[in-house]
Design a protein that fits this description.
Elements: E1 2-6, E2 9-12, E3 17-24, E4 31-38, E5 45-50, E6 57-59, E7 67-72, E8 77-82, E9 91-99, E10 113-114, E11 118-123
Parallel strand pairs: 2-11
Antiparallel strand pairs: 1-3, 3-8, 4-5, 4-9, 5-6, 7-8, 9-10, 9-11
Length: about 120
């Protein structure tokens, strides 16, 4: 499966962005999905994940209540709505996928499929 992330940009603190991850090659219903991010000089970290059905989601503590992950299987796209953005949310955001047979995971090492990343910059 090939992933294409988009939707990043420059936003002021308190603003919102919606990231999209479009999949091609295979239907996204076969995969669990996640968003990770990597800030300059830091390791890539887990942000959110969603099951193949969309009924179960997980979030890192630092985005709970602000970010929402969702999926549209008909459109083969996964989204991340980001509200109340903070300067510390500045990072390159990556979408990732793994087979539903492998279950959910927040580890970067458990995802074999990655998008190219989209830069989110939050100004203070």
């Amino acid at each position: 499966v090939q992933l294409q992330a988009s939707g990043g940009g420059l936003v002021q603190a308190g603003g919102s962005l919606r990231l999209s991850c479009a999949a091609s090659g295979r239907t996204i219903s076969r995969y669990s999905w996640a968003w990770f991010r990597q800030a300059p000089g830091k390791e890539r970290e887990f942000v959110s994940s969603i099951t193949w059905s969309g009924t179960v989601t997980y979030y890192a503590d630092f985005v709970k209540g602000r970010f929402t992950i969702s999926r549209d299987n008909a459109a083969n796209t996964v989204y991340q709505q980001m509200n109340s953005l903070k300067p510390e949310d500045t990072a390159v955001y990556y979408c990732a996928a793994r087979s539903i047979a492998s279950g959910m995971s927040s580890s970067v090492h458990d995802y074999p499929y990655w998008g190219q990343g989209t830069l989110v910059t939050v100004s203070s």
